[in-house]
Amino acid sequence: MTKDGPVLIVNVYMPTEYGTADCYDNYRDVCAKIGAMFNDTDAAYLLVMGDFNCDCMRSSRFFDIFSQFSLDHTLLCSDRNRLKNVFTYCKDDGLAPHGLTTFCVANFWMTELLI
Predict the structure, then answer these.
(1) Please, what is the Cα angle at 11 between 34 and 19, to 5 degrees?
(2) DSSP-assigned beta bridge partners for residue 114
(3) 6-64, pLDDT tens digit by residue?
(4) Beta bridge partners of 10
(5) Does pTM top 0.85 for this prediction?
(6) Angle 113-13-108 from CA coordinates, rounded to 5°
(7) Strand 97-99, strand 7-13: pairing
(8) Which CATH fold would you assign to the domain 7-114?
């Protein structure tokens, strides 16, 4: 609870990118459901954290959906603002690290609490 009202906290493990149209549609659908859930509550703020399966360092196919979702709900990626040159996943051979895939996004009004 904040002075402005409650906070809706959502923990996600977003659909994985397998290169199919279904993956893309599922990702968009989950983002839409999170947005609808927030709009249907009396929460003043939205905090979404977890694994977005979206590699911002390589401009993954999901990044455009993630970016639009963030823009639509006045969210920012606080982990991306704080962590540079890190990765959260690496293949077993250690040769192919992937950029940060776990984000925490929050209304910009809560930025000072998270950054």
Answers:
(1) 70
(2) none
(3) 889 999 999 988 889 999 999 999 999 999 999 999 998 888 888 888 866 566 788 88
(4) 48
(5) no
(6) 25
(7) unpaired
(8) Deoxyribonuclease I; Chain A (3.60.10)
